[in-house]
Amino acid sequence: MSTTTLLSYQTGDSLQQIPSYTSEPQVHEQRLALSGRFPRPSGNFVKESKNGNARLRLMAQEDDAVLPLYSSGAPVDGVIELSKTEGVSRVEVKLEGHLKLREIAEGGHSTARLCLDTRVLWIKDRENRICPDTLRFSLQIPDTFTFEEKTYPLPPTFGVKLSGLPGFTANIDYSVGAIINRPNASGPVKSKAIGLIVGTQTVATPILYYPRTHPPSPLPHPLVTTSRGFLETPEWGVHESVLYARQKGINDITVKLYIPVSRVFCISERIPFHLSISSNPISLAAFLPLSPTTHVVGRPKAMRLQLMRQSTVDVRSVVKADANREMWRVDNIGEATFRLIGDAPTWIAYSGEIHIDTSVRTAGFKAAGLSVKDCLLLSLNPFDPYKCPFSDLRQVLNVRLTTDLRSPNAADRLPSPPYVPRPQETGSRA
């Protein structure tokens, strides 16, 4: 194949020939169409070197941002500003991402590279002897990464600590940095840890990466009750379990939990649900002290519906092979509130919402040796199980969370697919 017509890559002053583009139309321009994306912030995030000779300026940030924030598909646009250009021989910018697993007690660690993008912005040569004091750049955060021949979606910024013997920490970090090489500079920076040569100056900052997703469909309308209980619709999935009786004269109770069939919810909205309890009148009367709307001072509720998050770390790359393969922790990130909406001699109906903790910023993901999953946990744990007429109940339903609400104007967000139930997701008897 002939290569004579291919454009050659150039550095240095040739970069200034590239036309500049803006997200908003200028005075002489006109917008022809709007894709529905959220407008990008107009502020700058600036990180200055210790000696003040170099600044890293990142565009499209909130004015009061503590750290730069990016979502999936967003370019990392910025400028490297040099107050002193004497002696500069090379300038480059680097985007990096790592997943780090660390053993707390013994100090073992493992690092997986998630992304690495290095761009040379200027090199000193015969035609370019003086470095420009302003160098623009644009980097692209990838959508995926490959680890041990498997491809995963690029995970969000995340950190978790797992207690135990040994304990572990898992962190996903991203950073952007400028590297300025000054071979003849006085007082050069030396760092064996990051492999920089003598005379290298760096200006770097951590960045936050939160890929944006939205549910595949809006939340359905609430169910209505009839004389026989809830009137079921295709938009609501029903998940049945049994509350087994432990005393004579009392029948088992059928428990039906209704949640939207997609099982995908935004972290900023409440998760709606319905709950149906059905049996004969005697059994329902025995259940009333365990009802989720019953409050007893000094005692936790017997029946709860919670949103749980499990963070799992594969520690084989950090510790010896004969150690446990996985460690995990489970956190309660959402609690349900119940309200009674109807009853009859053979059934009781509740509706409610799960309030997701405001500290939750990321959806579930899987990245190399770290995975985060979310599920709903419906449980019945009597205060005095020996006197309780029913056995314990535990029903687990996997769900997915998204970062954004369902909106027709969310062109820059990826729809999260509906959850596909697994055969083992059923209620269990304690």
Question: How would you describe what is shown here?
Answer:
- With 430 residues, this protein is mainly β.
- The protein is 2% helix and 48% strand.
- It has one helix spanning 281-287; strands at residues 43-48, 54-61, 69-70, 75-82, 90-103, 109-123, 134-140, 144-147, 150-153, 158-162, 168-181, 189-191, 196-209, 213-214, 225-226, 229-230, 236-243, 253-260, 264-266, 271-278, 303-314, 326-344, 347-356, 365-367, 370-380, 393-402, 414-415, 427-429.
- Strands 17, 18, 19, 20, 21, 22, 23, 24, 25, 26 and 28 form an 11-stranded mixed sheet that branches.
- It is elongated and about 95 Å long.
- 27% of the residues are buried.
- CATH fold label of the largest domain: Immunoglobulin-like
**Class based on secondary structure composition and strand pairing:** mainly beta
CATH architecture descriptor text of the largest domain: Sandwich
CATH class of the largest domain: Mainly Beta
Total of helices = 1
| Computed CA radius of gyration, to the nearest angstrom | 28 Å
Q: Write down the overall geometry.
A: elongated
Organism: Coprinopsis marcescibilis (Agaric fungus)
Region (Disordered): 407-430
Protein name: Arrestin-like N-terminal domain-containing protein
